[in-house]
């Protein structure tokens, strides 16, 4: 290498970046707390969540029947309800009071009421009615009861309709057949729907927590050492940010592959995406999250305050991705807030890839949005590092030159001493 | 003497709260802001107007009527008309539509000729709630197609309207949704998610404030201000937080039940007391975790982990009887589960207080539990070790 290259500004800058990256790696692996966030959290949390949702669908929801008719038709109706996958008839109650008592005691979550004229109406070929009372505490229970009841009434109904219509239209079965094809999440399970949104979010939150904890550690060292961090490498703000970002990229290679590829494999979630395309999508995501973490860590003054400041944001970010309330129904404000978070784009693109088999080309909008976020987050991180953090360190150094113990004293005062 | 200790300990707890602006942020601003976020996000109530597409290969009078009917439904919104299946599939993969209705060619001809054409609807269940809504809309429309043709045919042979109705819909089902007749998603989701979110804040703040004593090495002084009584020390430290949290949580309940008009079919005091018990139970739960693991990092981590996972294993979304039994059992470890059960019994279903007695008792039980184990925390406080 020529002397000219060695002394060029770009080369020196690059050396700074590498030194920052190396030091950050060292700091990460010396700190058990950060290793727990970066590796252990990613290893265990997705598995824990997947196990909770692994049953996927609701089966045999308990229901009580109140049969005021007691005919062959009404018994047949109850038997058919019992035979559905979703519902199990746990018993007959003599009257509604008895059924209500069962519901209050949580022995069942629904009451099927068959009125007195049920059998007669069937015999006279008149319209007949059944009532279902269901507990609304959990939406999936309601869905199970509703699906079972409508499937049974439709099946029985089409049998009777056929008998009437057949002589007129000279055909059997319904006139137009209809068929549902579930795409994406073909098991129609809740786990497959929810977890794919949550997996990228676990990556994002674990990374932000880890980065903020590292920053908190550095702040604590500065407070003890008169505003200077003995472990920090002298580098320009840009080099510091990029060096740290490189370190996070290196560490997250394994968690990304494990969380986005192997966890769905272990639990049989939809895996229609190409792993290469998913990794390509994850590159801007991880860069954006690393920069976002470095921006947000300006709020952190001690290691453990990351728990207070960032943990709850996971819940907010989960909702912003649109997993439980679709994004197209959100108000303009929340839609825009959601646009600013990397996980929103990543989760939605990842779901489209894994569930619907979209290629990177088909989610290019999400992909480019992630790159725009990389750019914006970099500018933010740079401004914070240069004009907030560094200015703060300089003022600390100046203050502790006058009074050497000022920083620790402020800290003690916060804990209620003096 | 005891009063003096209580007073000193109480004063110390208040001073600590006041000197860190972060406490104010995490105990007042953020809980209210986040609750408002959740309540405002879902204020629409029910999932409607799911963006869907239609592939009409028939382009007949009947198929156009089908698509007009479909668009008339509140559940779906036809925002794309595709020329063929491939286009529709591409749009689903891009996320532009969440599903589509497929009408084959010769629909009208085959239907009237009795050759049973098949209409299909492709529903993307990767988005769970919109998927279920789409299914409802699509299913109803395909039923209407059948009914429309049959009705005309039956009328021509001279059947009365009642007879036609009886043969088209012989079994009329009435579903009564107790307490939430409009299937309002906000009532369902946020009457549990918001308190669970508040519990998370309570757990975090309690764990943090306890851990800080161990970290700063001031735990011995903390015990000294309360005359070496762990109980008084905890009371002095946590009661100011209880007061603040209860006020905030009651305010959030006021938002839920008054501003957003959540169902409240019981005496309001039942819910107010349940909320107060939830606050105290969560604080005690955090103390209990510290008694098990008297260490700043692991104690806080345990509270965080359980607080986050309790959103899932308390059975708000997947009902507990469908979970693996050990996961369902784990749900009963957290105070929020009992609040959820009280909420369902009292606010939603409005049944007798007698049926919820166990849940109230359980919440009170959480408060007593850490007292039995507080000797472990005391031991650690006398010799605090901080592991970074």
Helical segment tally of chain A? 16
What is the average of the pLDDT values of chain A? Answer: 90
**Total beta strands of chain A:** 5
Number of domains of chain B: 2
**Percentage of residues in DSSP E strands of chain A:** 5-15%
In order across it, which strands form the biggest sheet of chain A? 2-1-3-4
| Multimerization status | heterodimer
- What is the N-to-C order of secondary-structure elements of chain A (H for helix, E for strand)? HHHEHEHEHEHEHHHHHHHHH
- What percent strand of chain B? 5-15%
CA(first)-CA(last) distance of chain A: 60 Å
Helix content of chain A: 55-70%
The overall pLDDT of chain B, averaged over residues, is 89
Main beta sheet strand tally, sense and closure of chain A: 4 strands, mixed
Number of helices of chain B: 15
Commentary on this structure:
The complex is a heterodimer of chains A (418) and B (388). Chain A folds into two domains: 3-53 and 189-414, no CATH class; 61-169, abc type-2 transporter like fold, CATH 3.40.1710.10. Chain A has 16 helices and five strands. Chain A has helices spanning 3-6, 9-30, 32-53, 72-82, 96-104, 118-123, 139-169, 190-224, 237-267, 275-296, 305-310, 313-321, 332-339, 342-356, 364-402, 406-414, and strands at residues 61-67, 87-93, 110-114, 128-135, 177-183. Chain A starts with a helix and ends with a helix. With 388 residues, chain B is α/β, with parallel strands linked by helices. Chain B has two domains: 2-43 and 184-382, no CATH class; 50-168, abc type-2 transporter like domain (abc type-2 transporter like fold, 3-Layer(aba) Sandwich), CATH 3.40.1710. Chain B is built from 15 helices and five strands. Chain B has a four-stranded mixed β-sheet.
């Amino acid at each position: 290498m020529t002397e000219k290259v060695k002394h060029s500004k770009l080369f020196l800058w690059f050396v700074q970046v590498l030194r920052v990256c190396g030091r950050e790696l060292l700091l990460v692996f010396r700190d058990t707390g950060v290793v727990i966030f970066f590796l252990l959290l990613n290893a265990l949390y997705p598995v824990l969540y997947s196990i909770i949702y692994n049953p996927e669908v609701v089966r045999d929801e308990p229901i009580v029947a109140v049969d005021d008719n007691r005919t062959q038709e009404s018994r047949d109706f109850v038997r058919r309800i019992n035979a559905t996958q979703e519902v199990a008839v746990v018993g007959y109650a003599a009257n509604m009071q008895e059924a209500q008592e069962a519901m209050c005691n949580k022995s069942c979550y629904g009451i099927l009421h068959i009125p007195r004229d049920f059998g007669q109406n069937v015999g006279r070929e008149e319209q007949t009615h059944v009532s279902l009372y269901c507990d609304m505490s959990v939406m999936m229970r309601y869905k199970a009861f509703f699906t079972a009841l409508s499937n049974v009434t439709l099946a029985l109904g089409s049998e009777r309709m056929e008998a009437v219509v057949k002589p007129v239209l000279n055909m059997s079965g319904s006139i137009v057949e209809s068929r549902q094809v579930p795409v994406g999440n073909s098991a129609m399970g809740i786990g497959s729907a929810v977890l794919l949104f949550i997996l990228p979010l676990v990556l994002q939150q674990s990374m932000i927590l880890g980065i903020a904890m590292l920053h908190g550690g550095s702040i604590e060292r500065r407070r003890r050492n008169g505003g200077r961090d003995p472990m920090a490498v002298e580098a320009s703000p840009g080099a510091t940010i990029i060096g740290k970002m490189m370190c996070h990229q290196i560490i997250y290679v394994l968690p990304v592959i494990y969380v986005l590829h192997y966890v769905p494999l272990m639990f049989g979630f939809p895996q229609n995406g190409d792993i290469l395309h998913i990794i390509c999508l994850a590159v801007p995501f991880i860069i954006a999250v690393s920069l976002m973490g470095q921006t947000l860590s300006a709020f952190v003054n001690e290691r453990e305050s990351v728990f207070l400041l960032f943990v709850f944001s996971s819940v907010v970010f989960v909702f912003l991705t649109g997993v439980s309330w679709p994004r197209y129904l959100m108000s303009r404000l929340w839609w825009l807030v959601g646009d600013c978070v990397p996980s929103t784009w990543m989760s939605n693109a990842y779901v489209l890839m894994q569930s619907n088999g979209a290629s990177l080309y088909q989610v290019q909008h999400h992909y480019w949005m992630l790159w725009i976020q990389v750019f914006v987050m970099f500018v933010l991180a740079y401004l914070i590092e240069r004009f907030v953090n560094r200015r703060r360190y300089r003022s600390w150094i100046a203050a502790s030159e006058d009074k050497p113990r000022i920083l620790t004293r402020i800290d003690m005062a916060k804990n209620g001493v003096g | 003497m005891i009063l003096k200790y209580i007073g000193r300990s109480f004063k110390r707890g208040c001073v600590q709260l006041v000197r860190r602006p972060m406490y104010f942020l995490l105990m007042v601003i953020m809980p209210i802001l986040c609750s408002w976020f959740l309540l405002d996000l879902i204020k629409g109530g029910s999932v409607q107007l799911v963006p869907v597409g239609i592939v009409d290969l028939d382009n007949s009078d009947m198929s156009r009527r089908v698509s007009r009917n479909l668009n008339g439904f509140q559940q779906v919104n036809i925002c794309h008309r595709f020329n063929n299946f491939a286009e529709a599939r591409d749009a689903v993969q891009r996320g532009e539509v969440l599903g589509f209705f497929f009408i084959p060619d010769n629909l009208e001809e085959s239907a009237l000729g009795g050759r049973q054409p098949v209409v299909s609807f492709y529903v993307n269940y990767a988005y769970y709630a919109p998927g279920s809504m789409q299914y409802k809309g699509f299913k109803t429309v395909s039923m209407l197609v059948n009914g429309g043709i049959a009705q005309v045919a039956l009328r021509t042979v001279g059947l009365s309207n009642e007879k036609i109705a009886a043969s088209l819909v012989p079994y009329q089902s009435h579903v009564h949704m107790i307490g939430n007749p409009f299937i309002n998603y906000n009532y369902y989701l946020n009457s549990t998610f918001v308190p669970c979110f508040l519990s998370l804040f309570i757990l975090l703040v309690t764990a943090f404030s306890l851990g800080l004593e161990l970290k700063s090495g001031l735990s011995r002084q903390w015990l000294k201000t309360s005359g070496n009584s762990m109980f008084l020390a905890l009371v002095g430290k946590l009661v100011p937080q209880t007061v603040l949290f209860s006020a905030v949580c009651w305010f959030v309940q006021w938002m839920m039940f008054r501003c957003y008009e959540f169902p409240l079919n019981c005496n309001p005091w039942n819910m107010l007391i349940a909320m107060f018990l939830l606050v105290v139970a969560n604080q005690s739960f955090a103390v209990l975790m510290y008694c098990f693991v008297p260490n700043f990092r692991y104690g806080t981590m345990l509270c965080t982990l359980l607080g986050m996972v309790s959103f899932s294993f308390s059975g708000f979304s997947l009902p507990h009887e469908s979970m693996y039994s050990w996961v369902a059992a784990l749900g009963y470890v957290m105070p929020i589960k009992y609040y959820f059960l009280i909420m369902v019994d009292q606010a939603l279903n409005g049944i007798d207080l007698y049926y919820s007695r166990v849940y109230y008792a359980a919440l009170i039980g959480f408060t007593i539990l850490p007292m039995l184990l507080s000797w472990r925390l005391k031991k650690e406080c006398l010799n605090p070790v901080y592991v970074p």
